[in-house]
Amino acid sequence: MGLFTRRKTIFVDSDILVIGGGMAGCGAAYESRYWGRDKKIVIVEKANIERSGAVAQGLYAINCYMGMQWNENQPEDHVRYARNDLMGLVREDLGYDIARHVDSTVHKFEEWGLPIMKDPETGRYLREGKWQIMIHGESYKPIVAEAARKAATEVYNRIMVTHLLMDKTKANRVAGAVGFNVRTGDYYVFRSKAVIVGAGGASHIFKPRAAGEGMGRTWYAPWSSASAYALPILVGAKMTQMENRIVLTRFKDGYGPVGAYFLHLKTYTENAYGNEYESNWYENTKELVGDYIDRHPVPTCLRNHAILEEVKAGRGPIRMVTKEAFQDPHLETIGWENFLGMTIGQAVVWASQNIDPKHTNPELTTSEPYVMGSHATCSGAWASGPEDYAPADYQWGYNRMMTVDGLFGAGDTIGGTAHKFSSGSFTEGRIAGKAAVNFVNDLGNDQPQVSEEEYENLKKVVFQPMENYEVGRNEIVAGTVSPSYLLPMHGLQRLEKIMDEYVAGISSHYTTNEPLLTRGLELLAMLKEDLPYLGAEDLHQNMRAWELQHRVLASECVTQHTMFRKETRWPGYYYRADHPKLDDNDWHCFTLSRYDRESGEWAMEKAPVYHIVD
Amino acid sequence: MPTFVYMTRCDGCGHCVDICPSNIMHIDTTYRRAYNIEPSMCWECYSCVKACPQNAIDCRGYADFAPMGHSVRVLREPEKGTISWKIKFRNGHEKNFESPIRTTPWGSIKSASEYAAPNPDAFKSQELAHEPEALNIDKLPALTPDQLKQGVV
User: What are phi and psi of B26, to 5 degrees?
Assistant: First the structure.
């Protein structure tokens, strides 16, 4: 008990609490301030908002920009694109909402100082593809963070939020959050009238291809620890499309991006023998998914599918043909700067292996799966849609409010809205920010209250891994093996192995079935039972322990959803071998889950997909 | 490639500790200098490398797949608004690149609260801050909910 009572508890009161200071969180803070001039707005961030979230390293493109001012695209076009890419299933109301606002976000970024490349002939933003514009985005995050810091009343860096707090006066209303400072060890109780979750999606729930030192070089940032999902799941918020994990085709080992190569440099892929291969798998794919294979552009998962089949047929590796494009010095510069701006590690891999794409066509690979909500996938929380046109089934309160009152989300947190990327995540944060201000204004005197008993109990839970270590460490001479505790890395490796082998990771060629999923859930249940026995040597390891807790809960949700959807909707992302085909009769719907933290049970249901755009 | 710190250059200032998104740059208590405590959770994002005033931090490619003898060095100059890179291949070839990082002075962003306060009617509208002007079109687009369809489209 000594360990708990020694710790200082710091209370922070706010009107709006923003959890996670990445793109979505920064957008939420900015917009909350614009509408809520007198509001206390607090950002709490696990790292430092100057360089946090998925954009910490920078970006070389903004992948969601309509260009309505030049009549390049309309929001309806983006809905059709995202719907097509996700095999028919997106929340069209939410997607349209982001698309109609995103241009104003990007124009602000430019005004703030983000260097956006221009087409020298037209003066318009330089297009990489239909939706993408090219930027010199090394300082994308520091620029956006500057705007967020000016908007927020206070920014708390280096605090890992572990749990949300619920209102003691109303059963389904949020009242704040708790966490701890990963440097000082102080315990934080945030009391807030509204909470916006802008935390990160999930890397490291499936075993990565690089299992040694290189395990850090995941495609999505290793600090994206599924808090976007675990925080809402634990308080009973409904989640959607959690089975819709994403597998990325990327340059081998560094996972360097291919978008600019395909779209701007006009490079293309071929098999090991220099042949085009996608057409080899056209009939096979059509058999699985019907005419979805005939749509344009070909959905991302189906392009993955062709690669996977070609490699299984023994004609790998797939290579990107760069030798032609890289003869042009301008394109060569773009090809390299593209990595230096957002995936420096790929430049390192190529330098180390003497791969100069001017002379060598580099290998591609398919990554381990990731669960997130802002790229070409749409896992996340089930959220209320925009008031002016969302169907009644999608509307129960304020825009981007989850099924818990006062709990909002944006970015990776919100499900059903694929292809929002950085600009769309910031935009969704803005939407949530304005809605949260309205929510707080409408509360009047009916304000949420936290329960002292709840946050005092959580204080023990939060620091339990350090207590476990301090006590258990005395049992053994030295080393990492203890009969009474597991280190966070041990738990992470067990999680990754379970998900990999039973829930369609790389070692099973992304394939699973009901018996495998059933066994996977049994093993996950045992892992969950072991989590109270995590041992943390220091505060850093205590952070790793809580990241693992969040990853495990999100993984269980993913597995439940994968079990529930009895079809293979996205071949190339994962396969249900017992239901190998897409089934629009039974499964042209969203999957929803709700977790009961008392019983540990998951309730699954279907929700209708409404097409609002033709 | 995970970062490491050169003993003779680091002065223990802690800029890297302050910025690392993965919380893995720590000060060694014996030497009072920074080091990477958990290389397998390093994303090679270079945030620490860019932040180091002594150029004391470098990367060595992940041992799993990167042969030795390469280097990717960076110089970020916020006042100049540029970033410069030098890539050295294992075989000695070199490539150099320089890009702009910002077009306005640091600290110059106008705060959300410096704009005129929004009109009370605007709170329940669908417009966000600075709209519709910042969209560069006349008005915010909208849908009507009367065309809902279910099934495959």
Answer: -125, 165
